[in-house]
Design goal:
The complex is a heterodimer of chains A (278) and B (487). With 278 residues, chain A is an all-alpha fold. Chain A has eleven helices and two strands; from the N terminus they run H-H-H-E-H-H-H-H-H-H-H-H-E. Among the domains of chain A are: 34 residues, no CATH class; 108 residues. In chain A, strands 1-2 form a two-stranded antiparallel ribbon. Chain B is an alpha/beta fold. Helix content of chain B is 33%, strand content 16%. In chain B, strands 2, 5, 6, 7, 8, 9, 12, 13 and 16 form a nine-stranded mixed beta sheet that branches. A three-stranded mixed beta sheet of chain B has the order 1-17-18, covered by helices on one side. Classes of the chains: A mainly alpha (278), B alpha/beta (487).
Chain lengths: 278, 487
């Protein structure tokens, strides 16, 4: 690739890593483990004023990088915290939820079923596999991935773009995959021992990997109370909302209570911090 | 180790040298993202331009591209001439065909007889241009449009040809016209995307050739510039609607909580990107309203609806899409593109083509008239295009009802209208057989350069960094603005 770049900031480190890589039998997994477990990689992205002044571009890696998670990570993360993720390795590709048959509107669907001319959604565990197993029709790639800058894979992409767009908000708020994940996450939250504060605390750590501040807990409390009131008054709406997605719901949970917690779960899954590597 | 380092330094220096040479060609334009105010170019396009866009005063503020997918027959619909009747049924001279590549569908034919247009036509407009009777309504707008009869492309098959026409390159991986324009000029509407596409199926041939998301894709530009599909039905933009059991006011309250949580954390983390994300959520919320308002055509007058024809009442039809296109243009959406499929008349052209023309004729003409009466045509560029034309000779046996026409990229017809374009004229011409160009050839790159010119963009200075090059919509080969058609 003829990309014009700056001379590496840490050439000796790169050489050390390269030699280490060779000496460990070209073990890619070991190399990646080596890098991601390093102190440099695990540094916080929060800059001190001094860091900003001395190295605004973070060329010397005194702080960690900050970027929105890639498309696949965002979906996988929602599935993981919801408990829906099927974390099995291997097997054929799968077709999780898609809003309508987007293949048919562009394909030559008269020819042969073998060439994936029409979309047929899968069911059961195939809805919850990691995103790397999602079937990729390059002429009509999954829209909830493409919204988050996943390339269409027709050509090699060295450097994915990293945007923030309204379409991304629509995906994580309204895509049945994410609505269902919030509902299942709420079931996990409901099983946490203790009062609402304890549950909110646990859920917050689960999505952001850090302790919430009292002010954050109080905003979440406010949201929970409001949604509880709403769904207590409108049980039909609660049931409609809980009906999104094909996974079964725990019938022991009161629908109004469950729906209110699912709204809080949506709130947590949509936090900027949740979709950002800090 | 030092030796290795030195070698690498040398490679980098050579790359640096090449990079510096190419830098002179153009500079990087930083367009706004899907919506203004959200701008943050990163990755492949992270360089700001010294060049402000537009480069000069634009004649057009927005573009509507009516793309006829499959290869519209210029021979039958626009480029008739008396010689076609004269040579009807006769073999096309070898000197005319020359060494042109033919597709595998006709390359083994033993005869290549000339087939005149399916239907008669009329001399239309003040300049008396010929338009087929298969397009009676389009005959009525002849004075508003500029018909280019000398377009040409090197591609002879659909995939490369349609990719070429829409992205300036036959290979996948490049940015589409609309995404370039979105990247360069951004949006003037805060509540709708800058680039919106709609697809309709033709009744002439259904199913027809496949199309692909790369035709409205962002290629190497940030994904916020990709065409956003507008669909028939309850969810006109994917994931637009709140889930069942969630009301708008309820969503509002949740988004307020979200913004509050995000804002306090952003301050602690010194993360401006979070503020961008808060804006994105707000715009998503507004879009839920603006899109449903957009697609609600109940306020259109009976006269308007009937002008677009009966099909306007069928969501997802070309006619319905034309009406929505006008509503989008009214709202200052920068680039609207319709794809109407079904123009690939290899077989049974006599049966297919009339249906295919009926799909688009009335509503295309109605759109032009509607834009005109609302004063929008002056600063809206209308591009009626296709990926190539069709052969003057028959595919299949002459006189057989199954007869059709094969692909023909050496010359074909498109038309333009509106902002920056001189209406009521023809440009370029072909030989006696509608085969080779005899005057004023227009490569599709020239068409791209002209579209950008109407928008106030100098195509040669409008670039994005990709693979170490400053890439242009018009590519690396020569491209010229077609000055002869400018108003």
């Amino acid at each position: 690739m003829a990309r014009k770049e700056k001379w590496p900031s840490h050439p000796e480190l790169l050489d050390w890593l390269a030699v280490d890589f060779v000496e460990h039998g070209w073990d890619v997994k070991a190399l990646i483990r080596q890098i991601v477990l390093s102190q440099t990689y695990r540094r916080s992205s929060v800059p001190t004023p001094e860091m900003l002044e001395r190295d605004p571009q973070n060329r010397w890696l005194a702080r960690g990088p900050r970027f929105r998670l890639p498309a696949e990570f965002i979906r996988d993360q929602a599935l993981l915290v919801s408990g829906l993720l099927v974390n099995r390795v291997g097997g054929p590709s799968v077709n999780p939820y898609m809003p309508g048959d987007l293949w048919r509107e562009i394909s030559h669907y008269g020819s042969t079923p073998a060439t994936a001319q029409t979309f047929v959604q899968d069911h059961g565990e195939k809805l919850y596999r990691r995103s790397m197993y999602t079937y990729w029709k390059r002429t009509a790639p999954p829209p909830n991935m493409v919204a988050f800058d996943a390339p269409n894979r027709e050509v090699c992409t060295v450097d994915r773009a990293n945007t923030s767009t309204p379409l991304q908000a629509l995906v994580t708020l309204n895509d049945p995959q994410f609505v269902e994940a919030a509902r299942a996450f709420a079931e996990r939250i409901a099983l946490v021992a203790g009062d609402a504060t304890a549950k909110l605390h646990w859920a917050f750590v689960e999505t952001t990997s850090r302790e919430p501040q009292p002010s954050e807990i109080s905003i979440l409390h406010r949201a929970l109370t409001r949604e509880r009131t709403r769904y207590a008054q409108n049980r039909v709406a609660a049931e409609l909302y809980l009906n999104v997605g094909e996974s079964p719901r725990n019938p022991a949970l009161d629908p109004s209570e469950h729906a209110a917690w699912a709204q809080v779960a949506t709130l947590l899954l949509n936090l900027s911090e949740t979709v950002t590597r800090n | 180790m030092n030796h290795l380092l030195l070698q690498r330094q040398d490679i980098l220096n050579r790359r640096t040298f090449l990079g510096d040479v190419t830098r002179g060609i153009g500079s990087i334009a930083l367009g706004s993202m899907l919506f203004p105010g959200l701008a943050r170019a990163v990755g492949a396009t992270g360089e700001r331009s010294a060049d402000a866009l537009p480069h000069f005063a634009p004649k057009a503020k927005r573009v509507i591209c009516l793309f006829q997918s499959g290869g519209l027959s210029h021979v039958d619909l626009f480029d008739n001439k008396s010689t076609l009747q004269k040579y009807a049924g006769q073999e096309i001279p070898a000197s005319v065909r020359g060494d042109q590549r033919l597709t595998g569908m006709t390359s083994r034919q033993t005869a290549y007889p000339v087939v005149p247009p399916l239907m008669g036509g009329q001399r239309c407009g003040r300049h008396g241009t010929w338009i087929s009777d298969l397009l009676p309504h389009m005959q009525g707008i002849a004075d508003d449009i500029c018909i280019i009869k000398s377009l040409h492309t090197e591609a002879i098959n659909h995939d490369p040809a349609i990719t070429y026409m829409n992205t300036g390159n036959q290979q996948p991986g490049y940015a589409s016209m609309g995404s370039w324009v979105s990247y360069g000029l951004g949006s003037e509407n805060k509540n709708l995307p800058a680039f919106i596409t709609m697809i309709s199926q033709g009744t002439g041939k259904n199913p027809d050739q496949p199309i692909f998301s790369r035709l409205w894709g962002n290629g190497f530009l940030p994904s916020s510039h990709q065409g956003v599909g507008l669909r028939a039905g309850v969810n006109p933009v994917l994931y637009l609607n709140n889930p069942a059991g969630v009301e708008r006011g309820q969503r509002r309250a949740l988004l307020d909580d979200l913004a509050e949580l995000n804002r306090s954390r952003a301050a602690e983390l010194s993360d401006p990107e979070t503020l961008t994300r808060i804006n994105a959520y707000e715009m998503a919320y507004r879009m839920q309203m603006s899109v449903s308002e957009l697609t609600d055509i109940s306020g259109e007058s009976a006269a308007t609806l009937s002008a677009y024809g009966p099909e306007v009442h069928r969501p997802g039809s070309y006619a319905a899409n034309c009406l929505l296109a006008r509503r989008l243009l009214e709202r200052d959406v920068r680039f609207v593109q319709l794809f109407h499929r079904g123009w690939d008349q290899h077989i049974a052209i006599a049966r297919q083509l009339p249906n295919q023309c009926r799909d688009i004729d009335q509503s295309t003409a109605a759109l032009i008239k509607d834009l005109k009466q609302r004063g929008l045509l002056e600063d809206t560029l209308v591009v009626f295009a296709t990926e190539f034309g069709r052969t003057v000779f028959s595919q299949g046996k002459l006189g057989d009802p199954g007869m059709g026409r094969d692909h023909h990229g050496r010359s074909f017809t498109v038309w333009l209208a509106g902002g920056g374009i001189r209406g009521g004229m023809e440009y370029g011409s072909t030989d006696d057989f509608c085969y080779n160009i005899t005057e004023n050839p227009v490569h599709l790159r020239d068409l791209h350069a002209t579209i950008l010119h109407c928008l106030g963009i100098d195509h040669s200075r409008f670039t994005a960094k990709f693979r170490g090059l400053n890439v242009r919509l018009t590519g690396v080969e020569e491209a010229h603005v077609v000055k002869g058609i400018l108003a």
